[in-house]
Amino acid sequence: MGLQTRVHEKLGVRPPRNVDVSGSRGLSAQNIFLFLEGLPAQLQHITLDSVVVKDPAFIRFLEGRLKAAGKGGSALNSVAFAEESLSRLEAPEVFPLLLPLLEHLCLKGNILGRVGCAALGEAFRSGRASRLRTLDLEETGIDWHQLNILLQAFRWTWCPTRLEAVNLYESLYQLEVLLRSFQRSDVPVLLENLNLSGNPLGDLGMNVLSRLLYVLWCRGARVRVLKLRRCECTEDGVEDLARVIRGGWLSCLETLDLEDVARAAFFSSFAEPEGKAFPFL
């Protein structure tokens, strides 16, 4: 039994499960990592900032947690990056080591760019993100081009991933062939919470997203929370989303956030009155 465990038992103090080391002014990265390395295996959630993420020791920390998780010695399953702490430069190194650990990932306020989106997509394509249930991409600068980069990574994925989608430019026939293949797959998709708020998706991005939601349903996902605030789409974009709902592919939805989106056009796509048809709004 280690010294740390004996101290916890002697003092009767439960080890922390959630730790926030963002905004740690005055502390060097070396001191922060000394603190992180001393945290117990029961740690479940951690919030990080650029001081930690941009230090080479962060990669070693992730490697250690990943190795421990493989032996059942790490409970870490949730990570949030403070705003402007992760960039396209760190993403290709961080995602392959981090995503195998996680069920919840928050990237809010971190501009990923095409390189970062490609790195995230590759993590899904390779199966490293197979446990992910919550993905927060609010204000990450994703437009329809970058969203399409993500979707292309899932296009021919047959390994256990949680997200599948198709290229925006697929013909309807090719799309249906792909969807039928996904429907026959026994691999479950467990994504429940998706946040794309504050991104300039536009109508093309909503079209890509609607295809994604359809494929998720075909793979067994039951999305419960979908946040699309301030996505810069018009009536045409919300019509694509309404089509997904009318088809029954979001029947488990509990929260749908359409702040500053064309809500009137969305509701007009349905015969039911606003309050009666959409208890989740």
From TrEMBL:
Keywords: GTPase activation, Leucine-rich repeat, Repeat. GO terms for cellular component: cytosol; nucleus; perinuclear region of cytoplasm. The keyword Lyase does not apply. The keyword Repeat applies. One of its GO terms (biological process) is nucleocytoplasmic transport. It comes from the Eukaryota. GO terms for molecular function: GTPase activator activity; small GTPase binding. PANTHER family: RAN GTPASE-ACTIVATING PROTEIN 1 (PTHR24113:SF12). This is Uncharacterized protein. It comes from Chromera velia CCMP2878.
